[in-house]
Amino acid sequence: MADTNSKIPDQPGEKDNGTNRRDFLKETGLSVAALTGAATLLTGSQEAEARVTWAEWFQKSYRLMTNEEQKDAIARLEERHSQEFGKKVTVDGSPAMKDVLFGYALNIKKCIGCRTCVHACVKENNQSRYNPELQWIRVIKMEKGEFLAANMDKGYPKDYGIEVGGNAYENAGVTLEGEHYYQPETVPEKDYFYFPIQCMQCEKPPCVKVCPVRSTYREPDGIVVIDYNWCIGCRMCISACPYWARRSNWGEPNLPAEEMNPKTHYLGNRPRMNGATEKCTFCLQRVRNGRYPACVEACPVGARKFGNLLDPDSEVRKILARKGVFRLKAELNTYPKFFYFID
Amino acid sequence: MRNIKLSRNIFYALLALLMITEIGYSQDAQPAQDEELVKDCYESREDYGYVERRDIEPALPNVICSQTTSRVLWWGDPYDGTIPLGDMPLEADYSHEEAVVTPREKQLKIFMPCTTCHNGKTVPVPKNKEPRLIQFHQDIVPNALQLMHGKGSIWCLDCHSMTNRDKLISFRAEEISLNQPQKLCGKCHGEVYRDWRDGIHGKRIGSWTKGGKKRWWVCTECHNPHTVDANIFLPIKPEPAPALPKGMKSADHEHKEYGHQ
Question: Where, residue-wise, is CATH 3.30.70.20 in chain A?
């Protein structure tokens, strides 16, 4: 049985030799299906898979391309996306700026949990809007908690809860478990604070370490990027990321043409395909052209700050110099370039 | 041989079943398509800073607003309708930057300058700055004896010029434009003013680059000075929560009470 499986199906001389009619038909059918698929691809049918051109299917990893090949790849994408979305789509390929290392600071005391950044990010970065709904920023509602003398001895054994590991059934104070799906009338709510998480653009990114095809890597300006075309969709990086920052397109992305942002970057917000992994890039397409990231601009309370870590006069560097800052999960030695601060 | 084939058939059957259920699952709700586009939006403060959505170029709107909260999410042109921030004290390091603000005084022209009534005749110039009940402007301050700023230590005329009501006034009797309230606020709130000047406090949009052009939000674009004692920042409606993962019926598990009843 194992022998017949490895055989090339269309060799007539061998088919009596251990291959029965049923297997032969099945395998021939498969190869015919494969051929038909390739043919659809070549004729440029509007089938989901066939929207990708032949040349795009076989292009190299973006990092290994020559400048000419990169230009060709960008031109192909511009043409395809312009057709697909019915408007002029530009795909930028600008490289990292010299002497720039991007850093981010978020004032955790100011954040009110309004999720404006989340939705601004979606508008800017062409995420799939529904089914799957992908968002690169998540805001967690944290409870400040209350310490009640009445809770002190709850638990087992009765009346001695706190002496035996304490509060087995009731927390005395802060739980810090967080809520993702909160939806109150207004924010901020009394006795809660909010904690946004997104890609930390680590200096030692675990996602880059695990990528088996090296489609995700660090750029010279410190941004961790993904070549969506080279990504095989294995989702190893999603498991590796300790900050839950990466998202997978678990289906054909749904991006309405009228909402599509036509100013894109190859490594940033160009539309993704089914199976590709994506994440925050500090709005690569904006910051490499001097503009603040969309979330920084959207934040109605000014909790989000962005700048060049190599420039001592930048906003981020002044925050690092003047405020109390911390990195999330610093003990993992990922060295994030995303700082939380309190003033 | 037969066993292998049988197990393979079972495997194919299971695979087919898996694929069918996968298709069955992916019937999520699609958002309504012909929703009216929100055009009247606000920037940071819900009772202040209105902006109307329009196209500055074909297919490039000046702002994109949230359909649920009408808050501005995205700026097509961050410098739309701005004026230079104006001269600032020398010690600041923004002298090398191009800073712009959205003018507040244009609102006076659209509605009515304050001096239309407060001209010394229709409404006489008050004799002193002593707090008293006032009949007008109860939409701004419901009870003028309980102004929610400075915990009772200051009153309307400590900030609004008694003689020229279109201007603010400092305790040194310098008139200050409504476009530059930071010059007044900074007189008392020095530490916050310093952070704001350096870009640590407050909001800016535009270019992050050194010396790049930025639009600065001034104090009153986020804080309502008349109610600031009650709310430093007035609570606003949040944007919708993310969709629940497939198969999850509710987010009850997140609540503290869950499982404790």
Answer: 102-140+196-342
Q: What is the CATH number of domain A102-140+196-342?
A: 3.30.70.20
B163 inside domain: yes
Say if B26 falls within a structural domain: no
CA dihedral B77, B83, B84, B85 (to 10 degrees): -100
- Strands A138-143 and A192-197, how do they pair? antiparallel
Rounded Cα distance, B239 and A196, in Å: 14
For residue B110, the surrounding DSSP H or E stretch is: helix B105-110
The H or E element that residue B143 is part of is none
A91 touches B: beta carbon within 8 Å = no
B252 interface with A at CB cutoff 8 Å: no
Q: Which has the closest alpha carbon to A89: A266, A268, A284, A261?
A: A261
Q: Hey, which of A4-18, B13-27, B82-96, B107-121 has the most confident mean pLDDT?
A: B107-121
Angle A304-A305-A308 from CA coordinates, rounded to 5°: 150
Please report whether residue B154 resides in a domain.
yes
Chain A CB within 8 Å of residue B75 CB: yes
B72-75/B63-65 β-pairing: antiparallel
Query: Is the CB of A317 inside 8 Å of chain B's CB atoms?
Result: no
Please, what is the average pLDDT of chain A?
85
* Nearest residue to B61 (alpha-carbon basis) of A258, A35, A280: A258
A288/chain B closest Cα distance in angstroms: 10
Q: How high is the ipTM of this complex?
A: 0.84
Residues B51 and B99 in one domain: no
How far does A62 lie from chain B, in Å, by closest CA? 27
Which residues in chain A touch residue B69, judged by CB atoms under 8 angstroms apart? 114
CB A249 within 8 A of CB A255: no
> d(Cα A130, Cα A127) in Å, to the nearest integer?
9
List, for residues A308-331, the tens digit of each pLDDT value: 999 998 999 999 999 999 999 999
Which residues of chain B have a CB within 8 Å of the CB of A169? 260
Q: How far is A13 from chain B (nearest CA, A)?
A: 23
pLDDT at A256 over 70: yes
Give the residue numbers spanning the domain of B176.
83-114+123-222
Mark whether B71 and B162 lie in a shared domain. Answer: no
- The pLDDT of residue B230 is above 70: yes
Q: Tens of pLDDT along A27-75? A: 555 454 454 445 444 444 455 456 677 888 889 999 999 999 999 999 9
pLDDT tens-digit series, residues B132-150:
888 889 888 988 898 999 9
Q: How far apart are CA A217 and CA A224, in angstroms?
A: 5
Q: Which pair of structure tokens corresponds to residue B40?
A: 């009247």
Looking at the structure, do residues B183 and B98 belong to the same domain, yes or no?
A: yes
Same domain, B151 and B207: yes
